[in-house]
Amino acid sequence: MFKIVLYGSTAERKQMKEVLSQHLNKNKVRFEIIYETYDSSKFIKDSLFKGFNLYMICRNKTISYMLKIYNNYNLQTSRYVSGTVEFPLTYDALDKMPIKNHPLTCSCPYGTYLSRKGENIHKILHEEIEYIHRKKRKTFIHLNNGDTIETAKSLTQIRRELDRSYFFKCSNRYMINLFSINMLTARNAVQLKSGAVIPLSKAGFANYFKALVLSELGSKIWK
């Protein structure tokens, strides 16, 4: 989720919000404008450096922005870049900001996966899936919040139903969300952000690097 904070008058925030929303929706970025204010003390107290990804501050017909960027896709090494653009905000100005290839905008396509069990239907955002594991004719979908959803579908069936972006099969029994990976621990294993260690087959090792390259290009991992 790409989280945004806006500072400015009511009219200024409205203009920035409209252009941002249209631009990000067009680029299929899942975002949320978390906080809006024209009170400088509240802005500093309630929002500054509290984990938001983009700050836009409008004063004297100038928009100053701070964008949180990451040095890699594990989302653990970060810094802020800043700059200014003229008000009113334009699409051209947004195109010049390093938003397009931001990990939070080009990670999972933020589609949904529907898991059915009996009369129960679970609607799961792709970004919430950490990895999927097949064991004894059952498949377990492990979520980032620690929950697990069980289904009788095979990995192949689930793979066909997913959007096929940023998920890769690392062995016959495991499929991983690329952006859940913390680090490659060896040629035969990856560690996820949750601490789980998932084995990599020889083909899975090749698939991992193929997935990294294709995700940079915004391409699907499987055809």
Radius of gyration: 20 Å
Question: Going by CATH, what is the homologous superfamily of the largest domain?
Answer: LytTr DNA-binding domain
The CATH topology assignment of the largest domain is OB fold (Dihydrolipoamide Acetyltransferase, E2P)
Number of helices: 6
How many E-type strands? 15
Backbone shape: elongated
Class of secondary structure makeup: alpha+beta
Please give a structural write-up:
The protein has 223 residues and is of the alpha+beta class. The protein has 2 domains: 2-106, Double Stranded RNA Binding Domain (2-Layer Sandwich); 112-217, LytTr DNA-binding domain (OB fold (Dihydrolipoamide Acetyltransferase, E2P)). It has 6 helices and 15 strands. It has helices at residues 10-26, 40-46, 91-96, 103-106, 155-161, 202-217, and strands at 2-7, 31-37, 54-59, 62-70, 78-86, 112-117, 120-125, 129-135, 138-143, 148-151, 167-169, 174-177, 181-186, 189-192, 197-199. The strands form 4 sheets. Strands 2-1-3-4-5 form a 5-stranded mixed beta sheet. A hairpin with a 7-residue loop joins β4 (62-70) and β5 (78-86). The longest helix has 17 residues, at 10-26. The protein is elongated. It starts with a strand and ends in a 6-residue tail after the last helix. Mean pLDDT is 79; it is low at 72-77, 105-110 and 217-223.
Describe, in short, the structure shown.
With 223 residues, the protein is of the alpha+beta class.
Characteristics:
alpha+beta, Double Stranded RNA Binding Domain, OB fold (Dihydrolipoamide Acetyltransferase, E2P), five-stranded antiparallel beta sheet, 15 strands, disordered C terminus
